[in-house]
């Protein structure tokens, strides 16, 4: 015992690490860490397996991004099954409502909208907006935007922002709502806040939209390229490529648009919007038969009224009026279906009526729409309907509202030119017809050739410019007063 006491009082020698001791210590550390990992219970984020389809779709829906069709189907089935046993799960009702909304976007089947509304309202019934049910509130705003009820969408978005200013999901709703209402400054401000808070696919898509509306084409393309780079799934990538194709189309580059649309279809073959875009580009490149084929395939996948109108006008341009009439009838049927499900198709239907049916009815319809939504799209459509009904003086005021904010559209320029020609202002008509041809000479298979004919029929200005700015006499240098010489100052001062 005395020996032990002596040893206990003797100070221990300093520890020095030799190579051998270091290896031993490292081995002990590895064993301890491995033991801790074995003892700690597994967590869900430890799973190295790829996410299930329903998980992928739920993640996409939560981020406001497109989801693949099979993933959406799995998510809907999963949440419906869960809610059958857990009907008071407000979060799952919100997810299900957003999934229904994404189904409507992918399929262009507006029957999903009432289902989405019921699910989202069920979520809000369990957990009201006053208690911070932000997912359901954001879903209601996105649903209102999809139905083109932009005033209601703005209210939901602003309600979320008032309660949680840093919650980024409110801002995509607000960008879309302000754009639909014609508040382009508000849309730009909301977009900038979104980019600061959450740069990513949703933010870059909205940035591209805002830049396009301002007429900043290069910025719009760069933002959409960023969106494509931020895409994490084939569905997201395909959507970004489709939007890049739309930007190429609007600036008149049909070949580049075709390349982007085909890239979207290779990435996600179920992309009906990209198939419709490819049909539009093929028609512009003179491949009308292939374009008709693609339009019919796209409509078979998603019954979109806009595609029915485009196909009808292409068939008219190809000299097939009976087939065109069938498409116009299909358009009115689709619009009636959408209206029954709460969708506002006033602009599309008004443009169709102005060109192919009752222009006076189009004026009434679009005047009501203008009282709710003062966007450039509504202004253009109302101006065109007024022109087609014979009131060019009133039409010009709305055409100016459509063309002056900055959006560069061949359709808008053509409409304004025809209104100005109707008023006898050939100089202004020539200028806007030339703008339409520069912007996109293939903007419509029907109206594009008419624009070329109208431009050819307008007399060209006289050589040398208008007479009232030509000098009537040779220029003579004027006599200018000579500068006074400074007086010499007395010396000594």
TrEMBL record:
Spell out the residue ranges that the record assigns to TPR repeats. Answer: 238-271
Give the Basic and acidic residues compositional bias ranges. 43-55
Which UniProt keywords are present, listed alphabetically? Membrane, TPR repeat, Transmembrane, Transmembrane helix
Indicate the transmembrane segments per the record: 22-39
Looking up InterPro entries in the UniProt record yields: SRFR1-like (IPR044650), TPR-like_helical_dom_sf (IPR011990), TPR_rpt (IPR019734)
Which SMART domains would you find in this protein's record?
TPR (SM00028)
Can the keyword Membrane be found in this entry's annotation? Answer: yes
Which residues lie within the region annotated Disordered?
A: 43-62, 460-493
What this protein is called in its record is Tetratricopeptide repeat protein
Q: Which organism is this protein's natural source?
A: Streptomyces virginiae
Q: What is this organism's lineage?
A: Bacteria, Bacillati, Actinomycetota, Actinomycetes, Kitasatosporales
């Amino acid at each position: 015992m005395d020996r032990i006491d002596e040893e206990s009082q003797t100070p221990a020698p300093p520890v020095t690490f030799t190579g051998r001791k270091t290896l031993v210590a490292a081995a002990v550390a590895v064993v301890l860490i491995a033991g801790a990992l074995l003892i700690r219970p597994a967590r869900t984020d430890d799973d190295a397996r790829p996410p299930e389809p329903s998980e992928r779709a739920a993640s996409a829906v939560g981020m406001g991004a497109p989801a693949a069709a099979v993933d959406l189907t799995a998510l809907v089935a999963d949440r419906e099954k869960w809610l059958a046993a857990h009907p008071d799960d407000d979060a799952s009702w919100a997810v299900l409502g957003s999934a229904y909304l994404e189904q409507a976007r992918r399929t262009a089947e507006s029957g999903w909208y009432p289902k989405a509304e019921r699910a989202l309202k069920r979520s809000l019934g369990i957990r009201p907006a006053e208690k911070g049910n932000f997912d359901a509130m954001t879903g209601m705003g996105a649903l209102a935007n999809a139905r083109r009820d932009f005033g209601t969408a703005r209210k939901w978005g602003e309600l979320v922002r008032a309660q949680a200013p840093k919650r980024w999901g409110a801002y995509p709703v607000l960008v879309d709502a302000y754009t639909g209402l014609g508040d382009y400054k508000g849309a730009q401000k909301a977009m900038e806040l979104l980019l600061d808070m959450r740069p990513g696919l949703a933010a870059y898509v909205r940035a591209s939209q805002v830049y396009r509306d301002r007429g900043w084409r290069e910025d719009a393309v760069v933002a959409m390229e960023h969106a494509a780079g931020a895409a994490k799934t084939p569905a997201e990538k395909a959507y970004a490529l489709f939007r890049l194709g739309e930007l190429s189309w609007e600036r008149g580059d049909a070949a580049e648009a075709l390349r982007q649309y085909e890239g979207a279809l290779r990435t996600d073959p179920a992309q009906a919007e990209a198939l419709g875009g490819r049909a539009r580009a093929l028609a512009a490149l003179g491949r009308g038969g292939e374009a008709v084929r693609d339009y019919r395939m796209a409509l078979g996948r998603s019954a979109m009224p806009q595609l029915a109108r485009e196909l009808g006008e292409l068939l008219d341009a190809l000299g097939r009026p009976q087939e065109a009439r069938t498409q116009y009838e299909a358009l009115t049927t689709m619009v009636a279906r959408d209206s029954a499900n709460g969708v506002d198709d006033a602009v599309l239907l008004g443009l169709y009526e102005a060109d192919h049916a009752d222009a006076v009815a189009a004026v009434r319809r679009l005047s009501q729409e203008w009282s709710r939504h003062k966007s450039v799209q509504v202004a253009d459509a109302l101006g065109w309907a007024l022109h087609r009904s014979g009131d060019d003086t009133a039409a010009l005021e709305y055409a100016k509202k459509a063309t002056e904010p900055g959006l560069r559209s061949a359709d808008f320029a053509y409409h304004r030119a025809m209104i100005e020609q109707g008023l006898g202002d050939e100089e202004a008509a020539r200028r806007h017809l030339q703008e339409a041809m520069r912007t996109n000479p293939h903007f419509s298979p029907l109206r594009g050739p008419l624009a070329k004919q109208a431009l050819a029929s307008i007399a060209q200005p006289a050589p040398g410019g208008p007479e009232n700015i030509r000098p009537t006499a040779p220029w003579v240098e004027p006599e200018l007063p000579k500068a006074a010489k400074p007086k010499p100052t007395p010396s000594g001062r």
